[in-house]
Design brief:
Structural class: alpha/beta
Oligomer: single chain
Number of strands: 12
Shape: flat
Radius of gyration: 21 Å
């Protein structure tokens, strides 16, 4: 069996920054460090940071006075930041800069008097954070049916943004439906889907064209990881989402001669190598890295770190 590795894959710049913020805060201020929500949606990463002294909470009310707290890479509603300002806490914001860009778009649209439509998954942490940037006149949709049911104060004054971890293919039809319903709808940028989401999706399309089975390393809570699996399946190959090599079912490899391997933007490379070693011990005869360009983008840490 030949194993093909997608390129690029794994950690993006926003995830690297978020994890570095937690690790640097632990080094500078000592343990424990409190993190609101999972810093990134990956079970292994969260468990590794817990072992180093991070405590994950869902509400800042759970953080004791005088402690250091970090906001997750997905972003938070403005109300969370307002609450933090009333507490004696040292706060570091690990929100991905590309998500912050979407937040700025939402705020600008709101100030211009537009109803803002967020294309995204209900209940996702990033979507909740984006919708919480303004006090009202903001709506979430994901399907054509939700677009059709949408009622806004003024159909002539509407704008939209998208959850950064959705696929371009996934949002194309909904955007077209929005434009059909609201011909004057505005978007302040060409695309909100982040560079890492787009590049990893293109890489998995190339991967799926060459193999019979695709394994995507990423947690089930990771939107961008689930999209990679979905894209591979739509390309007509079997695809499974796994947290690590421990989740692999040997029966998946029956009659498989070419296997593809990739990882979501919140999955560390050591999990990829763990799967590679697992496959080498079974029937993998070669491991080939696909053509592609590894990410070279890096975001700076916040002041104080």
């Amino acid at each position: 069996m030949q194993v093909y590795l997608a390129q690029p894959r794994g950690f993006c710049a926003g995830v690297n920054r978020a994890i570095a913020i937690v690790e640097k805060a632990l080094a500078v201020y000592g343990r424990p460090i409190y993190v609101r929500h999972e810093i990134v949606h990956n079970k292994t990463v969260v468990n590794e940071l817990k072992a180093k002294g991070a405590i994950f909470v869902e509400h800042l009310s759970e953080v004791p006075d005088g402690a250091t707290a970090i906001l997750s890479a997905h972003g938070v509603p403005q109300s969370v930041k307002d609450y933090a300002a009333t507490r004696n806490l040292r706060i570091f914001d690990a929100t991905c800069p590309l998500v912050m860009k979407v937040h700025r778009e939402v705020i600008k649209m709101h100030r211009e008097g537009l109803s803002v439509v967020v294309i995204g998954h209900k209940g996702h942490a990033e979507v909740q954070g984006t919708m919480g940037q303004v006090p009202g006149n903001i709506f979430r949709v994901y399907s054509n049916e939700e677009v059709d049911a949408l009622q806004v104060p003024d159909p002539q004054k509407v704008g939209y943004v998208t959850q950064t971890t959705l696929s371009a293919d996934e949002t194309k039809e909904v955007i077209a439906r929005l434009k059909s319903r609201f011909p004057m709808i505005k978007s302040l940028s060409a695309a909100d889907i982040c560079y890492a989401t787009q590049s990893r999706q293109e890489a998995v399309k190339k991967l799926a064209a060459r193999v019979q089975l695709v394994l995507v390393i990423g947690s089930s809570t990771s939107s961008n990881s689930r999209r990679l699996r979905d894209i591979a399946q739509k390309a007509g190959v079997k695809a499974f989402l796994i947290d690590s090599a421990e989740d692999i079912e040997p029966s998946w490899f029956d009659d498989i001669e070419r296997l593809g391997l990739t990882a979501g933007a919140s999955a560390p490379e050591h999990l990829v190598q763990g799967v590679v070693e697992f496959l080498k011990k079974r029937s993998a005869v070669s491991v080939i890295t696909m053509e592609g360009t590894a990410d070279r983008i890096a975001f700076p840490l916040p002041a104080g770190l």
